[in-house]
């Protein structure tokens, strides 16, 4: 490997196309995505949705959310594989220099925020679990801060390190989930008939499901670019999000509903299976947070090439520690809802921009179209969320649909504008 190639690999190919020699199969993206779904935020959200809607409606909500997530994830992974570009390069192509800077900054902030929320939630829950299991009072920071260092370590190995961690985590999580069903088997009939408390609406639940992994959906090009065949990249992300995601949420809800505990880990401790569940919790937080840290670092490395990749990783880790200390875990659900209406339109625009034919002579108006679409779609999504307007009653779906329709209409309209001008001044006969 030449010096230039080695430098590009060390920086995660933040500014270059991934070489074909570095590409692999769709299993890579499946294990990264599925592993990221085995963390505590998914378990907490699952318990919240099923206790709010009841078991049957809860299953429907996570299934719809999974289908939307799977379709979006498949498209963004396909785009990354086909173009061999990460999110930052795709943003440069779609939004132009100024718009791309805004996109990369928003994505980096979202990822850093999710990193802090994830570690904060992990620290509080793991410390509480260890206190219950040992009888000693353990502070949340004694768990959260060391985990930050482990996360930074695996991030240095990039997509390969995340895939290896996923290879261990996915089977381990499946075994623990199966064990939870066996332990509460006598109460399955009672769980099935559980009614919800109405704390969250069906549409809100679907949006929260999408929002819980929407940052991951947007950054799928960062992992899809390492898959040789675009169809396999789409399949890996689509199966992980469309099938594994709702299955994990449904299975993890059963133990908490049967035991009356607030989430899966607490239920497993009550059932005497706390240590294996806690191990899964730690590994899930590890891969999910490492994926956030990796893509946030790629985004910032693309914007600030003067800084080394390892320096950016270290800086974001420090910011994450600060967020943990100030209690970022308290913003969990509001953070998900905000992401669920602002980032899916961005993913839609990036995909459409990459897959549709590019203008032969792009100008400032072409560059403005993605920004305008993103802003309008986010506004419409928020209006749906707060009940001011609705097409489907699902904020995320409305935001995606609006972004796609407006983008295509404006792209077509602007594409004909130069021809119209040329005809009017007589330059085209």
From TrEMBL:
Membrane topology per record: Multi-pass membrane protein
Compartments in which it is found: Membrane
This protein's GO CC annotations: plasma membrane
Listed InterPro entries: CodB (IPR030191), Pur-cyt_permease (IPR001248)
Keywords carried by this UniProt record: Membrane, Transmembrane, Transmembrane helix
MF GO annotations: cytosine transmembrane transporter activity
Keyword Membrane applies: yes
Pfam families the record matches: Transp_cyt_pur (PF02133)
Transmembrane segments: 29-50, 56-81, 102-130, 136-156, 168-188, 200-219, 231-258, 264-287, 307-326, 332-356, 368-388, 400-423
Record bears the keyword Membrane: yes
Family label: Belongs to the purine-cytosine permease (2.A.39) family.
Protein name: Purine-cytosine permease-like protein
């Amino acid at each position: 490997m030449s010096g230039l190639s080695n430098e590009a690999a060390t920086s995660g190919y933040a500014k270059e196309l991934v070489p074909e020699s570095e590409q692999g199969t769709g299993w890579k993206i499946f294990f990264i995505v599925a592993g990221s779904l085995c963390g505590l935020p998914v378990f907490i959200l699952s318990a919240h949705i099923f206790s709010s809607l009841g078991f049957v409606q809860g299953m429907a909500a996570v299934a719809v959310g999974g289908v939307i997530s799977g379709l979006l994830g498949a498209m963004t992974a396909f785009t990354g594989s086909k173009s061999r570009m990460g999110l930052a390069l795709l943003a440069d192509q779609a939004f132009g220099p100024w718009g791309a800077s805004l996109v990369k900054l928003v994505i980096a902030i979202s990822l850093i925020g999710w990193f802090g929320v994830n570690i904060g939630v992990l620290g509080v829950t793991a410390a509480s679990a260890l206190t219950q299991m040992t009888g000693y009072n353990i502070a949340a920071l004694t768990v959260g801060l060391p985990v930050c260092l482990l996360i930074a370590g695996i991030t240095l190995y990039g997509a390969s390190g995340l895939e290896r961690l996923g290879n261990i985590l996915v089977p381990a999580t499946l075994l623990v989930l199966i064990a939870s069903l066996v332990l509460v088997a006598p109460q399955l009939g009672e769980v099935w008939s559980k009614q919800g408390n109405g704390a969250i609406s069906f549409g809100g639940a679907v949006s929260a499901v999408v929002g819980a992994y929407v940052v991951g959906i947007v950054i799928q090009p960062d992992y899809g670019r390492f898959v040789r065949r675009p169809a396999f990249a789409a399949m890996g992300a689509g199966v992980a999000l469309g099938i594994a995601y709702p299955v994990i949420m449904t299975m993890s809800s059963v133990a908490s509903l049967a035991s009356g505990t607030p989430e899966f880990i607490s239920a497993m401790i009550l059932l005497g299976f706390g240590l294996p569940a806690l191990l899964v919790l730690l590994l899930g937080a590890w891969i999910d947070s490492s994926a956030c840290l990796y893509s946030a670092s790629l985004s910032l490395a693309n914007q600030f090439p003067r800084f080394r990749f390892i320096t950016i990783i270290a800086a974001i880790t420090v910011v994450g520690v600060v967020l943990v200390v100030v209690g970022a875990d308290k913003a969990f659900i509001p953070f998900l809802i905000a992401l669920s209406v602002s980032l899916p339109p961005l993913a839609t625009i990036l995909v459409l921009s990459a897959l549709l034919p590019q203008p032969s002579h792009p100008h400032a108006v072409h560059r403005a179209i993605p920004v305008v679409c993103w802003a309008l779609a986010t506004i419409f999504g928020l209006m749906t969320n707060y009940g001011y307007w609705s097409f489907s009653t699902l904020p995320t779906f409305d935001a995606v649909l609006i972004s796609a329709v407006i983008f295509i209409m404006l792209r077509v309209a602007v594409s004909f504008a130069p021809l119209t001008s040329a005809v009017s001044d007589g330059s085209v006969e």
